[in-house]
Amino acid sequence: MEITRQHQKEKKKKKKQENQSDVTTRLFACSPFLSPLPSPFLSPSISIKPLKTSKNCLTPFSSACKLRSLFPRIKRRSSRTSYVTGTVFGLKIPDGHLHFAIQLDPKSPPLLVIELATCTKSFLSDLAEGPVQFMLTCMKDCTGMTGTSISIYEEWKWTERNNGRIAGSVWRCIEQTVNLEFLNLVEHVTCGAGVVQDYEDKGMKGDLMFMRANFERVKRSFDWEDLTMVGSVEKGCPEISFSFSRA
């Protein structure tokens, strides 16, 4: 009798161990991130049960993912970035210099009108070859008369670099009678290019070319602002860009 009881106990132990090994192999087989442990690491006293998942516990997560896909993240534009209207214009004559006007919108008074050192014809030839980048730099006033509290648009004189080449001096236009007449003439043009025939400016007469577009104004610092043309990219760069800096 004692021998049979011991034999039955040994059979029960073997069955228990076999059941535990079956459960562990099933558990590791259903999970791609786990690999089955060797038999010496498994203790017969530890019983591993497969994880039971219900559909109800996954519904909040899935619904949250759906809502997130419906409402994507909106990139907030920096407070230093804004948009202005920029107009490049000039007479198509040998001595005609290029001008640039900055406005909040086509019908508002100009924030700044400058006369560039670049001639209109050379600008058009450069623009036909690729992007044109104007870098305008000025020096801080060290006399103490104005200081550096004025805006960079209130400076009088800059040094112009056209695609890295020094072109000459740039002056802010003070007598803007002719410029205001022209801006009033094209105030209904929001974006585009054209030619005004037989236009007279400072005693010179000829065809006046103009290009108007929206410019992205990025204020890097108090002494540095960038203006890049919006909606026109040539060779990975904006077609026309201006950079005002003060050192």
Describe the structure in your own words:
With 247 residues, the chain is of the alpha+beta class. The protein has four helices and twelve strands; from the N terminus they run ααβββαβββαββββββ. The strands form two sheets. The protein has a nine-stranded mixed β-barrel. Strand 7 (192-201) and strand 8 (204-221) form a beta hairpin. Mean pLDDT is 77; it is low at 31-44 and 71-77.
Pattern of helices and strands: HHEEEHEEEHEEEEEE
Radius of gyration, in angstroms, nearest whole number = 37 Å
How far apart the termini lie comes to: 106 Å
Shape: elongated
Please summarize the sheet with the most strands.
9 strands, mixed, barrel
Instruction: Indicate the proportion of strand residues.
Output: 35-45%
Count, helices: 4
Helical content, roughly? 10-25%
Strand arrangement, largest sheet? Answer: 1-2-3-6-5-4-12-9-8
User: What are the low-pLDDT stretches, counting only 5+ consecutive residues below 50?
Assistant: 31-44, 71-77
Summarize model confidence as the mean pLDDT: 77
Structural class: alpha+beta
List keywords for this structure.
247 residues; alpha+beta; nine-stranded mixed beta barrel; two-stranded antiparallel ribbon; 4 helices; 12 strands; 37% strand
Could you outline the blueprint of secondary structure elements for this entry?
Blueprint: H1 2-30, H2 59-70, E1 81-91, E2 97-103, E3 112-119, H3 120-129, E4 132-138, E5 157-162, E6 165-172, H4 177-185, E7 192-201, E8 204-221, E9 224-229, E10 233-234, E11 237-238, E12 240-246
Parallel strand pairs: 4-12
Antiparallel strand pairs: 1-2, 1-8, 2-3, 3-6, 4-5, 5-6, 7-8, 8-9, 9-12, 10-11
